[in-house]
Amino acid sequence: MSGDCQDKVALVTGGASGIGRASALALAREGAAVMVADLDHDGCETTARLIHNAGGTAAVHGVNVAEEDSVERLVRETVNTFGRLDLAFNNAGIGGAMGKTADYPSEDWHRVLAVNLTGVWYCMKHEIRHMLELGGGAIVNTASIAGLIGMSGAPAYVAAKHGVIGLTKNAALEYAKQNIRVNAVCPGGVRTGMTESADKAIPGFLDKLARLEPMGRVAEPEEIASAVVWLLSGGASFMTGHALAVDGGYVAR
Ligand SMILES: NC(=O)c1ccc[n+]([C@@H]2O[C@H](COP(=O)([O-])OP(=O)(O)OC[C@H]3O[C@@H](n4cnc5c(N)ncnc54)[C@H](O)[C@@H]3O)[C@@H](O)[C@H]2O)c1
Fold first, then answer.
1. Which residues of 174-203 are buried (b: 16+ CB within 10 A; e: fewer)?
2. Half-sphere exposure (CA, 13 Å, Cβ side) for 59?
3. I want to staple 175 with a disulfide (CB 3.0 to 4.6 A). Which of 6, 148, 154, 180 is the partner?
4. Separation of 140 CA from ligand 1 center, angstroms?
C-alpha cells in the first residue's frame, strides 16, 4: 500500500458500516494504518478483514462515542497499538426519531445530541491532545446537508449537525497554528445502513431521497469517502474550518 496517507495512523468512528467503512477502506488503500471503531464490534471486524484482504493494516476497538471514558480509551488504545495518531474521521452517528419541534420526544433529542454532537466533541478533545504532542494532525467530522440547511421533521439531527460545523470551525481556529487542520464533510443522501433502515421503516424513503437530489440519485458511501481522504491528506494542506458539501448539488438550489 502506498499513497497520500503513507506511514500515517488513522482513527475512524462509525467504521463498521456505510460511510465509515468506505472511508476506513479508502484510508487503508492510501497507506494509513486504520483503527476501526464502532458500537458494532462484528461490523468492525468485517471492515478490518476487508482491509487485511486488500493488503492493508487495521485494528478494531469497540466504542460508544456518547461516553467520554469510552472515547478516551479508544484514543489511548489507538496510540498504544500503532504508536501515534495522525488522522481522525469522527463519523459515528444516528438518524434518530422524526417529528416536528413541538412534538419531538425529549428522550430522542438527548440521544441524538449525545451521539451526533457531544460524541464528536469527545473525540476531538482526546484526539487533539495526542496530535498536539505529535506536532500536528488532521480531523474530519461528519456533519450533513442537515448541518447547512433545515429539514422539517428532524430538529435534533439538524441541531446536532449544525453544531458539528460550529465545533469544527472553532477547533480549526484554536489549533491552526499548531498544525492541526479540522474540517467537516456534509453528505447529501447516501445509501448506507442508516438510510436503508429508514427505507424499511418508511417504504419508498430512499426513492424519495433520490428524487430530492438534483442528480436524481443518492450517493454510494465511496463517493463521500474520497472527499474524506482528500480532506485528511496533504492535498488539502491549506484547508481548515471548512464544511464541504458532497451532496450532488442539494444545497446549491
Ligand atoms: N446516509 C446518509 O444519507 C447521510 C447523510 C448525511 C450525513 N450522514 C452521516 O454520516 C455518518 C455515518 O452514517 P452512515 O450513513 O454511514 O450510517 P450507518 O448507520 O451505515 O453508519 C453509522 C455507524 O455509526 C455507528 N454508531 C452509532 N452510534 C454509535 C455510538 N454511540 N458509538 C459508536 N458508533 C456508533 C453505527 O453502529 C454504524 O456502524 C453519520 O454521522 C450520519 O449522520 C449520513
1. ebeeeebbbbbbbbbbbbbbbbeebbeeee
2. 16
3. 180
4. 14
Q: Is residue 7's pLDDT more than 70? A: yes
- Does the CB atom of residue 142 touch ligand 1 within 6 A? yes
C-alpha closest to that of 72 among 37, 104, 97: 37
* Strand blocks (E) in the chain: 9-13, 33-38, 57-62, 87-90, 137-142, 180-187, 243-246
CATH 3.40.50.720 for domain 9-193+220-246, yes or no, is: yes
Side-chain-side CA neighbours of 202 within 13 Å: the count stands at 10
Q: What does the domain layout of the chain look like in residue ranges? A: 9-193+220-246
How far is 218 from 208, CA to CA, in rounded Å?
10
* Residues annotated catalytic, as ranges: 157
* CA 14 to ligand 1 centroid distance, Å: 6
Distance CA 67, CA 113 (A): 12
